[in-house]
Specification:
Helix content is about 35%, strand content about 30%. By secondary structure, it is of the alpha+beta class. It has a single domain, classed as Glutamine Phosphoribosylpyrophosphate, subunit 1, domain 1. α5 runs antiparallel to α6.
């Protein structure tokens, strides 16, 4: 799978989007491996990130249209995922019966639905595309965060952060414990995203190679690759400090005496 993370940070120059993705690819027959495949794509003042099956990413990102707001782009991406799922249903299920999506829609309109159609309906209801997206960007100067799948669009801007993929739980927990919100200082937001990505690496399927950057409302982006080593030192020092429980020695002596 993967780990994709985005958060909002603020400084004197306004709001910014901080984002991070890994490059891990999982193949059922081959296992997991770090790749050159970048799971993010910057388009105007938005960045889209993909978790799950990467095969459709080129087609998905080609859906983005010039001059659209981030909210409008989210709708376009959602419609694209729904169409890709329909195509997948046709290829994997309906083609076995020489049927298309429109044929199936006519079948379920019948007053009496036979057992075969009921089985088809059950299989189609269970079929998933296996793709989730984060779209992070701006409507004017206002930051927007969306999590998108074929099932719908989930606005996450009010939280100030979002994550998808196998490392989602660890990343979200990091933001929660950091009390991150939309008004968090940009420098702190950068560290929170870095820390969320490092914490997510304990999850199976999350790689250590990371694409890490910032996007502003004008569409300017900056890679944080050079800052990663210093952030790693802060992260390791913070972990070490948590291990220093000298103040609890008396508790242990008294409690277990």
């Amino acid at each position: 799978m993967t780990s994709c993370i985005a958060a909002v940070g603020t400084n004197d120059n306004g709001k910014h989007i901080v984002f991070a993705t890994d490059r891990m690819i999982t193949r059922p027959s081959l296992g997991e491996f770090e790749s050159q495949f970048r799971k993010h794509y910057i388009f105007e003042n938005c960045v889209v990130m993909i978790a799950g099956v990467p095969n459709h990413f080129q087609e998905i990102r080609n859906t983005l249209q010039k001059g659209k707001t981030c909210s409008e782009q989210a709708t376009l991406l959602h419609e694209k995922l729904k169409n890709l799922r329909r195509k997948q249903v046709e290829d994997r299920i309906l083609s076995n019966f020489d049927l298309k999506w429109e044929d199936f829609k006519e079948l379920i309109k019948a007053e009496k639905v036979n057992a075969v159609v009921e089985v088809l309906y059950s299989k189609i209801a269970e079929e998933r595309l296996g793709v989730q997206l984060i779209l992070a960007g701006f409507d004017g100067i206002d930051p927007k965060l969306f999590v998108i799948s074929e099932l719908g669009i989930s606005p996450e801007t009010e939280m100030g952060y979002c994550a998808i993929g196998e490392g989602q739980l660890q990343a979200i927990n990091t933001f929660m414990f950091s009390k991150h919100y939309e008004g968090t200082n940009l420098k702190e937001a950068i560290y929170n995203v870095f820390k969320a990505k490092k914490n997510s690496e304990v999850a199976i399927g999350v790689g250590t190679v990371t694409d890490f950057g910032i996007l502003n409302s004008e569409g300017a982006s900056y890679s944080l690759k050079n800052e990663s080593e210093e952030l790693k030192k802060i992260f390791e020092k913070e972990k070490e400090n948590w291990k220093q429980y000298e103040c609890l020695k008396k508790f242990e002596e008294d409690f277990y005496a």
